[in-house]
Amino acid sequence: MTELITVADVRLTSFWHCFGTERHRADLDTVVGLLRASGTNVLPINTHRLDESRRRDALEHGFAGVGYDEVGERVDVSAYVKMVNVNLRTSADEAVRVAKLAVDMTGERVIKLEVLTPDLRSSRDDEVVEAARRLIEWDPSLIVLPLLSNDHEAARGAVDVGCPLLRVMGSAIGARAGILDTATFVKTCELPVPVVLDGGVGTVDHVRDAAAAGAAGILVNSVLFDDGRPPVTVMEDFREAAESHFGVGELQDSRTA
């Protein structure tokens, strides 16, 4: 049994996932099935519909309107690390605004932060580092986990502003191409913070590649829906790979719950 990823005072499993994309919309049964099959303790809360109206139902898992509170009625979420998932924003200003709204509404302090290019396929690294800096200055207790392209200088910049973990893309979102520049990814994994491969995962072999390159964990999402099999079945394969290459850790034994 391996240690969990420790970030500040928060302990995270090495296997993370989301609940679909704008093209892949997961209903409540699928969201609950994925959560139980994965064993993760990471629970992202999407904010792409959140605005100044502060509607609680704009906090959801995935893209099919499955509300944060709705999942809590089906699954005991008390042991999960809830992450404010600042997703689909394309500027630092937008990302910071929405993150502050979500923090105020939920009280959560772990921020899964992204600022994307207009095609929503890659990171605007300068903008996400700027957003991270502003959020940490606003509230130093926040644990800001930025999504970055596979760029070592951007990664160093995120560490310099106080990000305690980096989510680094191996290839473009949805590309399913794995880590295209292994040398740079390895170099980034040598920085003094954990790195999670987040972006471009397409096969269970990419889990092995991430571990071999020095990553502390991995996130899967669109591949669960692009495979052609039921997403929960694909999740079970990725969980097995994560257990094999990152160790079991303390994944929750909830597949039969």
UniProtKB/TrEMBL annotation:
<dbReference type="Pfam" id="PF05690">
    <property type="entry name" value="ThiG"/>
</dbReference>
<feature type="domain" description="Thiazole synthase ThiG">
    <location>
        <begin position="68"/>
        <end position="243"/>
    </location>
</feature>
<dbReference type="InterPro" id="IPR013785">
    <property type="entry name" value="Aldolase_TIM"/>
</dbReference>
<comment type="pathway">
    <text>Cofactor biosynthesis; thiamine diphosphate biosynthesis.</text>
</comment>
<keyword id="KW-0704">Schiff base</keyword>
<dbReference type="GO" id="GO:1990107">
    <property type="term" value="F:thiazole synthase activity"/>
</dbReference>
<protein>
    <recommendedName>
        <fullName>thiazole synthase</fullName>
        <ecNumber>2.8.1.10</ecNumber>
    </recommendedName>
</protein>
<dbReference type="InterPro" id="IPR008867">
    <property type="entry name" value="ThiG"/>
</dbReference>
<dbReference type="InterPro" id="IPR033983">
    <property type="entry name" value="Thiazole_synthase_ThiG"/>
</dbReference>
<keyword id="KW-0784">Thiamine biosynthesis</keyword>
<keyword id="KW-0808">Transferase</keyword>
<comment type="function">
    <text>Catalyzes the rearrangement of 1-deoxy-D-xylulose 5-phosphate (DXP) to produce the thiazole phosphate moiety of thiamine. Sulfur is provided by the thiocarboxylate moiety of the carrier protein ThiS. In vitro, sulfur can be provided by H(2)S.</text>
</comment>
